[in-house]
Amino acid sequence: MLLARGGLDAAFDALVRRHQRRVLRVASRLAGRSSLAPDLAQNTFIAIYRALPKYQARGKFSAYLYRVLLTQCRLSYRSAHVENHALDRFSQIPAETSGAVEDIILARERQREVELALDCLSPKLRQAVVLRYSGELSYDEIAEVLSVPVGTVKRRLFDAMEKLRQNLEDA
């Protein structure tokens, strides 16, 4: 990031390539719709690029990256235009003719149940779960991203998993 701030364009490109997949995965979970993930990821990287001149290296870059992503996700919730143009990725069934179609449909249905259960969580619990399991962040990294103590992260994850378990059993 410091190299990119210094004017080396290739450094910013390398940052995007290094973090793009995880940002997309986390964005799709936080937004609740994977069709929004590319836009959220792009907006995140644009915001970071625009902030290059005033960027100061305090802590890990990944914590800064995920804070920007969380901000972008919050902004997307407020945007009716983005909601109106979002498509549900599960509405399209592939045109496969093998016996695997049933497996695909069952897997999608289970994925939909998990996503609906995630949507039932409060934003604080959902953020912790998504950062942990989709973003593959450690407890310390999540605590840094969310600006809360590690114990709070552990408690949120415990509470979230319990609520997810209850929601999935009820479904």
Topology, please?
Elements: H1 2-5, H2 9-31, H3 37-50, H4 61-78, H5 80-85, H6 100-119, H7 123-134, H8 139-146, H9 150-170
How would you explain this protein's 3D organization?
Helix 6 packs across helix 9 (150-170) and helix 8 (139-146) crosses helix 9 (150-170). Helix content is 74%, strand content 0%. The protein has helices spanning 2-5, 9-31, 37-50, 61-78, 80-85, 100-119, 123-134, 139-146, 150-170. The protein has one domain (2-170): Winged helix-like DNA-binding domain superfamily/Winged helix DNA-binding domain (Arc Repressor Mutant, subunit A, Orthogonal Bundle). By secondary structure, it is mainly α.
Attribute tags:
171 residues, mainly alpha, Arc Repressor Mutant, subunit A, 74% helix, globular
Per the CATH scheme, the topology name is Arc Repressor Mutant, subunit A
Strand fraction equals under 5%
Number of strands: 0
Structural class: mainly alpha
Summarize the biggest pleated sheet.
none
The overall number of domains is: 1
- N- and C-termini, Cα separation: 45 Å
The CATH architecture classification is Orthogonal Bundle
Enumerate how many helices there are, as a single number: 9
Question: What's the overall geometry?
Answer: globular
Q: Portion of residues in helices? A: over 70%
How much is the average pLDDT?
82
Q: SSE string, helix = H, strand = E? A: HHHHHHHHH
Which superfamily, in CATH terms, is the homologous superfamily?
Winged helix-like DNA-binding domain superfamily/Winged helix DNA-binding domain
Radius of gyration: 18 Å
Low-confidence region ranges: 80-93
CATH class: Mainly Alpha
